[in-house]
Design goal:
By secondary structure, the protein is an alpha+beta fold. The protein has helices spanning 16-39, 87-104, and strands spanning 56-61, 68-73, 80-84. 37% of the residues lie in helices and 15% in strands.
Length: 113
Amino acid sequence: MDIRPLSATTPGPQGLDALAASAASAVTQQNTSAQQDATTPLEPAVKLDIAPAGDKARYIQDPDTSSIVFQVVDPNSGTVIDQLPSETALRNRAYDAAREAHEAQPGKLSRVA
């Protein structure tokens, strides 16, 4: 077993003096950052780019589901580039609505065994 002497402590404030010195520097840092924040204009938290440059965005109402559909359309060709909700989702909604309407009709029973 080898016993070595402890290294010398670093010069500077010790104990409560060190605590007071670190608290004073923290307050100074907070004040300077608050002054910088007050002078710097804030950027928006979220930037939304709904369509690439040159494309046209539009909202339409789907006739089958009566839901609002967002489309990005190429202005030159008129083709739909992107759509929310998708065609598949709209077809599924229309199918579910038709099935619920059929099941809700009284007097029509399915006699399949």
